[in-house]
Amino acid sequence: MKKSMEISPEKVKSKKGGLRTMPFIISNETFEKLASIGLHANMINYLRNEYHLDVATGATILLLWGAMSNFTPIIGAFLSDSHLGRFRMIALGTITTLLGMIVLWLTAIIPTARPAHCDIGKPGQSCSKATGPQLVLLLYSFILMSVGAGGIRPCSLAFGADQLDKPENPNNKRILQSFFNWYYASVGISVMVSVTAIVYLQEKCGWIVGFGVPAGLMLVSTFLFFIGSSLYVRVGANKNMFSGFTHVIAAAWKNRHLVLPQDDKFHGWYHLKGSKLVRPTDKLRFLNKACMIRNPDKEITPDGLAINPWSLCTVKQVEELKAILKVLPIWSTGIFVAVAMNQHALYLIQAKTTERHLTTHFEIPEGSFVVFSILTLFLWVAIYDRALIPLLSSFTERHRQGLSFKQRMGIGVAISCIATATAAAVELKRRRLGVVYGETMSWVWLVPQYCLTGLAEAFNAIGQIEFYYSQFPKNMTSFAVGLFALGMGFGNLIAALILRIANEASGKGGNVSWVANDPNKGHYDYYFWVLTFLGLVNLVYFLVCSWAYGRCEEKNIWDFGEGEEEEGQCLELELGFDQKFNKVEEEEEEDHGLTESNKEYSSLNVSNVDPFGQIDTLKHNG
């Protein structure tokens, strides 16, 4: 059967893509993470020691920076999927991130770019505050890096999957699932090195070296990405994709007075020839009115195309918008998981008060404790992928699939609650030792909360990305990853809001704030208990949303694009199209009162045109 292939010639040419592109793509992401995460891990110390900001203000700035870095990917996903394509977005993002790191490096090199040096931790010391221009230069570097993240984060994972995705391969699903896990693990390794080696350089060699090395690594990342550019499969952008969503909403509103049919015998749905989506689903039925044919003579051209896309849309367009709307409740549950995972600034302040010596001459940098989260994530991915999936498959009847996406997400939500509860209990012990007994707690007590945070991310974050990737069409995969980043962004904002409220409410009336600069004077444990309570509320909310969503389909209807049908159906669609619909007419004319125009439309040889392009969604079990 003749197939419509929008992304050819790259897709057709076997010389493009494949495993040989992985070193360039994964190396690009690895070096980018080595550079960027190394900056985030210890940045609270830079803001405290060099810009003389208090803990609450510094943590709020970092949370807002994180929010911006997670909001820009949704814009990057839109530009990638509808205008520029993934390759160009990654290229632009890489260059912009490099510029941001260079500007940050300059803030450490130029003495006048920050306040005069002062030991802010020394009792009675009065340190000058940063001026407006100094903060503007610092924030400008953050903005550049956030804009760069908007180009890299939503596209890198999907771009790598593009190189390996071959739907005709019977092992395609398993290959892609392993790619997701090992891609995330390789990034985890780079982050683990970053929060140890880069943080150590910042502590021992100063900020000039500590920021200069990440800038150099980002330069290497840029070079590696461009050197493999001739080998990449480049999925074309679809300029009509997001405008199609507005068409569906407008058409559904315009047709809001139509009465939806109550049975499956109605065949007046508008779809294109070869489409497997011939009728809309029953969920979000109000949108189905966008694809109901009222008067074929006035709404459809002789070629079978809609005359006015603002009044009539295809079933496929309707279902793709539904795919987004359906996941939003479950997506919203990941926001508070992000809140729990973004408490590292306060964890770092905790770590500064502990005994961190491994030997007489070596002390663990407080910014390196996040390595325990990354190590946990990496080990769990390896164990789950190689050992637990085969074991779980025998119990869940999900061949080589293990736990479903929603099961992993739910476990991650629960573990995030346990992580903040553990942090509260450990802080209660640490504070009691310091205030009552004057003792310093061992750093080992902090390891469980970091490990639990990493485990929550391993379950929830990876589960979310795979869930969105499986539920959306392929030309929306950058949007799928960007949606996860958007949730992280809202998580950063909500975390900043909760921190601000806790700081101001607890500090009223001359009281010491819960999140004071000196944790022995504050009550970080109270703050963590509040997060735990809110996390439990979120867990209940997730269970409700998961139940309401229903079962994830093993294979979405758009796994085959327009004109790509399963064997056995092609003959009917190519040779028996008219006869099939003429038969439908005879059976249903009396029941539904089809007009002559309806009959004429039913036998139209609708041209094989897909406004969304050739779509092959990755196929995963839910």
UniProtKB/TrEMBL annotation:
Per the record, its GO cellular-component terms are:
membrane
How does the protein associate with the membrane? Multi-pass membrane protein
Q: State where the protein is found.
A: Membrane
Q: Where is the signal peptide?
A: none
Keyword match Membrane: yes
Q: Membrane-spanning regions, if any?
A: 55-78, 90-110, 138-161, 182-201, 207-233, 327-349, 369-388, 409-426, 481-502, 526-549
Q: Name one GO molecular function term.
A: transmembrane transporter activity
Query: Region (Disordered): which ranges?
Result: 584-622
Q: Which UniProt keywords are given for this protein, alphabetically ordered?
A: Membrane, Transmembrane, Transmembrane helix
Q: Report the domain of life of the source organism.
A: Eukaryota
Record's family?
A: Belongs to the major facilitator superfamily. Proton-dependent oligopeptide transporter (POT/PTR) (TC 2.A.17) family.
Protein name from the UniProt record: Uncharacterized protein
